[in-house]
Amino acid sequence: MISDAESVLFDLDGTLTDPFEGITNSIVHALRYFGIEVADRRELACFIGPPLVESFRLRFGFSEAEACRAVAHYREYYAARGIFENTVYDGIPQLLDALKAAGRRLILATSKPEVFAERILAHFSLTQFDVVAGATLDSSRVEKADVIAYALEKAGIGAEHAVMVGDRKHDVLGARANEIPCVGVLYGYGSREELTAAGAAALARSPQALADVLLGRSGGAEE
Description:
Layout: E1 7-10, E2 17-18, H1 20-33, H2 52-60, H3 64-80, E3 87-88, H4 92-101, E4 105-113, H5 114-123, E5 131-135, H6 144-155, E6 162-166, H7 169-177, E7 182-185, H8 192-198, E8 202-204, H9 207-215, E9 221-222
Parallel strand pairs: 1-4, 1-6, 4-5, 6-7, 7-8
Antiparallel strand pairs: 2-3, 8-9
């Protein structure tokens, strides 16, 4: 059962924080290098969650080399300003505190570079995490399945003792590749249909409902 998991792995963007402003500002900065302007930044929400190289290739038809250059320009803005242009979702600190009080081990598993993830957690005082696992800057570890495998290894735990929490299909599919159930959150950037089709074990409409799901309390899970 999900509530029996001793360790909870969390995605970052769209799960703990809403990074829309910082990520879209960084994407706009990168696209200007290629002479591309975006009229409606809401169209860039698809970048939140998946690996950036993949998103630049799929959304704008970039080659692998172009996508890598775009990521480099993205990080120019992101590292200087975009990293903190986000907000913690209401209820997240309380959720993390409740899980810690219940004896759960908390692990961050994000496709964002680990060095950025550590700065974000420190900036927003999300100090409840026992282990932080992220992608590498050189893209040698960027797929969510690889990040989750790395997180499990870094934490020294087996898949049978863990559950994943995320807002996109990449979180669900990455968890399934590691034989871990995943709870999909509906307040992030993935739809109910996306998460269900990917095989989410449960859905939660809010951080408060997520606490109910993870702690085995009634009323949290969405059908």
